[in-house]
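Hi team,

As requested, here is the filled-out complex form for the 3-hydroxybutanoyl-coenzyme A run. I kept the field names the same as last time so the parser does not choke. Let me know if anything looks off before we queue the next batch.

— J.
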Amino acid sequence: MAFVTRQLLRSMSSASDPATAAAKKIAIKQVTVIGGGLMGAGIAQVAAATGHTVVLVDQAEDILKKSRKGIEDSLKRVAKKMFADKPEASSQFVEKTLKNLTVSTDAASVVHSSDLVVEAIVENLNVKNELFNRLDKFAPEHTIFASNTSSLPITQIANSTSRQDRFGGLHFFNPVPMMKLVEVIKTPMTSQKTFDSLIDFSKALGKNPVSCQDTPGFIVNRLLVPYMLEAVRLYEKGHALKEDIDVAMKLGAGYPMGPFELLDYVGLDTCKYIIDGWHDAEPGNPLFAPSPLLDKLVEEKKFGKKTGEGFYKYK
Ligand code: 3HC
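And here is what came back:
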């Protein structure tokens, strides 16, 4: 009975009065980030740096150790820029940020105090569903769940929980501390209150949020991935050198990186995973056609910068 009354009051209060609705938004202070890879660590870093209390979760201590080291290194780069002539302020910023950040290998035991759980784990629907289904039982009622997936439908991930109204997409970009954009994804089930809370959270991180429906690739990847694949096709056909294509797009279109540099930076495995998923869904779409060269490099485990070789070689 109490639950029904609470639900009724909630729906009445969010009905028409924007001031009341705004007041009901969740003020996100405590954040759990699941996944200690590049994206998860980046999200944890910016959240901690902007005064949130953050727990970064991954399965193994050694992964978390590596994540923390990566965060420290990145924070020092950020601090050097922010406090150019003030080394004391710079180290205070790093110290304060790290104080806001703890790590854990047990997601279920830390989500009880979270306002927001952001997931940035492997791009596998079953694994994500299993995770969220489990956390749904441990997280408080008000907690918002969000996925940083770059290619899977948010709706299908949200359906593994009983809180589809408190579930949305929060898509960040690599390197998270530098890239100003966050795509905030609203599924047909995401409540306005959840969406507004995610927009406010993105702004609190110092990011510029844009909104998008739950459509494959959202905005950026839907444009960026076919563009990068088109560059590979140009190169595969022998129409231009990859080095020249990179220079052309940097100097002729003002991109900070050329498409091959960016492919190596994002990870060839990630790009292949995205394009293969879209190709399966729409085999006739030439924009989503697989690339034999990309497939070959991935098969050879040349994933780009992270493995030391992709289209280019790295020290
Ligand atoms: N952490 C902190 N600071 C960083 C950083 C990081 N990880 N990376 C770069 N910086 C800062 C540092 O201040 C650095 O100076 P430093 O070397 O003295 O510390 C400064 O940026 C300059 O960096 P670089 O000299 O390495 O090179 P650039 O000037 O080219 O900047 C870049 C690097 C910001 C990565 C820029 O090249 C860029 O914007 N590239 C495009 C990235 C992009 O498009 N990302 C989106 C990919 S798509 C995606 O992520 C979606 C996913 O779903 C696939």
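Two things worth flagging: The chain has a mean pLDDT of 93. Residues 242 and 265 are 15 Å apart (CA to CA).

Thanks,
J.
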